[in-house]
Amino acid sequence: MGHQEKQSIVSMIGSVLIIGFYTLYVYKNYVAGDPEILNDFQFWGKSFLYLIPIAIVVQIVIHILFAIGNRIVTQEDMPDLTDERDKLIELKSIRISHWIFVFGFMLSMGSLALGMKPYVMFLTLLSSGFLASLASEVAKIVYYRKGV
After folding, report:
1. Dist. CA 72–CA 121, nearest whole Å
2. Which residues form the domain of 84?
3. What is the DSSP letter of 79?
4. Number of folded domains in the chain?
């Protein structure tokens, strides 16, 4: 398994852990005590705004720990160079991620147009972002395995 594949797996695990722990934290501390808060736009705005920097910082920490652990275990440096193949794989995986998120965005707007509660829109947005992230990493693994 190549370094890029390992990095994608670490990213997927990190994304799952971040979303899992964050949703558990928000549910236990806010939603469980007051289910009506799900209809509050301020709650959703704060939840998303807190999630973004938390996810970024945790992903950075996870990748740093991965790089250190990989260096200790394999005694190899991380590759500094990205070639045309790496860039092409990155572009293709971003395209897949983009289309999944756009589809989720359209679903979330459709839920509002159909008169559903606002929390359905926000949950659809959150889910589509999460699924887009996972799909991007899975696509990278597939492209690295089979070639571009």
Report:
1. 44
2. 3-146
3. P
4. 1
Is the Cα dihedral 98, 138, 17, 124 positive or negative? positive
* Alpha-carbon radius of gyration of the chain: 18
The amino acid occupying position 60 is I
Residues 67 and 7: their CA atoms lie apart, in Å, by 9
Asked if residue 42 lies in contact with residue 119, where contact means CB atoms within 8 angstroms, the answer is no
**Does 60 have pLDDT greater than 90?**
yes
pLDDT tens digit sequence for 18-58: 999 999 999 999 999 888 999 899 999 999 999 999 999 99
Do residues 5 and 141 lie in contact, with contact meaning Cβ atoms separated by under 8 Å? yes
Please report, rounded to a whole number, the percentage of residues in the chain having pLDDT higher than 90.
76
